[in-house]
Amino acid sequence: MSSKKKGAPLPASSAGLLRFFEDDTKGYRLDPKIVVSIPVGLIVLSWLLDIFLVK
Question: What is the pTM of this model?
């Protein structure tokens, strides 16, 4: 009975996203705060440069 469970296909859930998150991949791991803060910081920097250097 246990051999049937091991060979059984996984249930379809959100186009395979469940299986994607189960896989452990190699690579850099970044905190989401860093990923969000870098673009926001670049936007703020460009606004400040526009305000102080153009006028």
Answer: 0.50
